[in-house]
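The methods section describes the discrete structure representation at length, but only in general terms. The central task, working out the structure tokens from the amino acid sequence alone, is never made concrete. Nothing conveys this as quickly as seeing an actual entry. For illustration, here is how one protein appears when written out as sequence plus structure tokens:
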Amino acid sequence: MARYLDIANWSRRELFEFFIGYSNPYFNVCTSVDVTELVALVRKRPDVRLSTALHYFSLRFANEVEPFRYRLEDQKIVIHEVVNGGTTVLMPNETFAYAYFDYDIDFEKFNRDMAASVDKVRAENGRLKPTTRDDVIYHTTLPWFSFTSFAHARNKGRGDSIPRIVFGKYTNQHDRLMLPISVEVHHALMDGLHVGRFFSGLEAAFASPEAFMNQRSEAASL
């Protein structure tokens, strides 16, 4: 259930009021993260796509870092209890559509649900249908190239405060597989500190992916 942030007593109130008036209040961070262990795990599990695992961990740490769940509503800030996923899906005719899916900390359930959602959109030759919901994180995957910077197309007033996350092509660097990730967020809602916590969570999970994936599954079986 969503609730409103008490902006008047928020430690970032001054920063919020400073950045909210900017014509371009977003900042983007691009960095490469070691996915060697994650790729090795996925190669042993034919039922798991690398893109699904990436979306799972992205949503997991977006949900754990509270400002990623903040959304602007007029001059108020809504805090969603949970944010879910949206991703571009490459279609057979080389256009793309959008798939949406709920976040679940249980990796096995998330894996099934996201795969079903993506497959359904692709099988139905889905049309481009942007969601009006804001309790999501926008994702896209660009497996054809690596990158060191990224800029998003934007339409003012639509999804302004929704974080946008992009995964690129991983490359071999000194026998480690490094994946570029872009994170773009609204500066009135968060700072580099919060994006840093998101990346720290990813780095820890990618170093021991199986342990993180099993946490919820093991608890559910007790």
Notes: Residues 26-69+82-221 form a domain with the Chloramphenicol Acetyltransferase fold (CATH 3.30.559.10). The chain has one domain: 26-69+82-221. The mean pLDDT is 93. The helical segments are 13-19, 36-44, 50-64, 107-123, 192-207, 209-221.
